[in-house]
Design brief:
By secondary structure, the chain is mainly beta. Helices cover 5% and strands 37% of the residues. It has a domain at 3-20 and 37-96: Metal Binding Protein, Guanine Nucleotide Exchange Factor, Chain A. The strands form 3 sheets. It has a 5-stranded antiparallel β-sheet, with no helix packed on it. Strands 1-2-5 form a 3-stranded antiparallel β-sheet, with no helix packed on it. It starts with a strand and ends in a 22-residue tail after the last strand.
Length: 131
């Protein structure tokens, strides 16, 4: 796997990660509106250039912190609530430079409960966490 660079639009939030084998397209209202396409890593495997200057938004069961850049507003990553060193972090794969859509498998998760996705994949759609 190769190490790839990633950043928000303005470059205030920068990180590097290994190329993911797959990314998740969640169709919940939040991910759909912010254009999230999520790659999951162990927290220690995401190398931020500096402490990210982000705003945090929580909704629903308030278990996840959704981070957006304070300057440009890009959705950058999400973490578990209240843990600086959470076991898992999701980064917005749309920010990763050099990630090629034809090399990366897309997994869809029906958290919007309507089965509507903008992406296309041969993989079966995963059910909502509510199902």
């Amino acid at each position: 796997m190769s190490i790839l660079q990633a950043s928000c639009h303005c470059g205030a939030v920068r990180f590097e990660v290994e190329e993911p084998e797959w990314v998740m397209d969640c169709n919940c209202s939040r991910c759909r509106l912010y254009g999230g396409l999520w790659a999951y890593y162990a927290q220690r495997d995401v190398k931020f250039a500096s402490k990210p200057d982000t705003s945090i938004y929580m909704w629903g069961d308030r278990m996840l912190e959704f981070h957006t850049c304070r300057t440009c507003g890009c959705a950058t990553h999400s973490t578990e609530v209240g843990t600086e060193d959470a076991e898992r972090i999701a980064v917005n794969a749309r920010l990763i430079r050099g990630l090629h859509p034809k090399r990366t498998r897309v997994v869809q998760k029906n958290n919007g409960n309507d089965g509507v996705f903008w992406t296309h994949t041969e993989s079966p759609v995963l059910p909502s966490h509510d199902e």
